[in-house]
Amino acid sequence: MHLFRLLIIAASLSLASAASAATIGIVAPQSGAYEMLGAQVRQGVRVAATKAGLDVMEIHESCEEGSGGAIADGLVAAKVSVVVGFLCTETLADALPILKNAAIPAITLSSRASGLMEDTLKRGWPLFRLAPSDMDESSALIDVILRDWKGHSFGLIDDGTIYGRELVDRIRSKLEESGLKPTFTDTLRPAQEQQIALVRRLGRTGITHVFVGAERNDVAVIARDAATEKLALTILSGDTMRAANNPVPLQEGVLAVTLPEYSLAAQAADAVAALRAAKVEPEGYALPAYAATQITAKLVELSEAQGKPASELMIGTAFETAIGQIVFNDRHELQANPYRLQRWNGTAFVPVDRAER
Questions:
Q1: What is the model's pTM?
Q2: Domains along the chain?
Q3: Which of 109, 237, 325, 339 could form a disulfide with 140 if both were Cys (CB 3.0 to 4.6 A apart)?
Q4: pLDDT at 10 (0 to 100)
């Protein structure tokens, strides 16, 4: 580990001495199970950094316990202005105290752990989360159901997993606090080829709306079997619906509260064109990484103009990016919930306009 740390610092110092512009650090896997995701991060940052005139310093993220200290030492030695990536929570615990001492803000693109952000606030770490929090999904689902399902008989179904059960429990609790009680609750058996028995139980209750906290294919099976049984049912699910449309294709009209497809938004057009010109598809973490680089470029500009460390300028500043306007609140999280109600049109999830509800 000591040799590894020395090698990172030496490479970083060499890069720093040659750099004439501000430097953005990338911490992302370059091999292993998360190599593809790491490539999306690196590619997104590189393309945006070229456009913004930033130098780039890359460090491999092994996701091993205890590796964060060496990574942070390398970033400090390279005098990076901001560091983005951090796909693994394991890296952050050891890296953040060092980054705090150097006043280098870190933007994680993936970590949703609530405990990590609690430690960040308690210890004054300069960590900011571009990913939604683990509560944003349930909050958005609750808002949709409270707004759109009043007066309807509805059900809540989970798949028995920790994720599905906890999501449904959070939804049920908040709905009941607001006086909205489900007519039907159940736990499905996941990964089945058919769900006719469940669909028929739903039909006998007379409900018209159901939330299903399960994997995409389980939801697709329920929707297919409901159509076979000619059961008119509004089906809603969550972020698990951002998955491959197989083996059972999803029925048109299924709803999901999920992250939007950023590449289709108007504000992403220039970034999408720049990525594709560099032979990079704007998928996965590519656009969020591009956006994090745009945030970095703006921070460098503000820091130089105001004479303040970049970490002090993160909270409350509005950053215009390829994935929309980003503002970090005083909890170092996104001020606006990024989840949106969307409908499957047979090919993709598209935003549901208020007039269509």
A1: 0.89
A2: 2-132+264-326 (3.40.50.2300), 136-258+339-356 (3.40.50.2300)
A3: 339
A4: 42
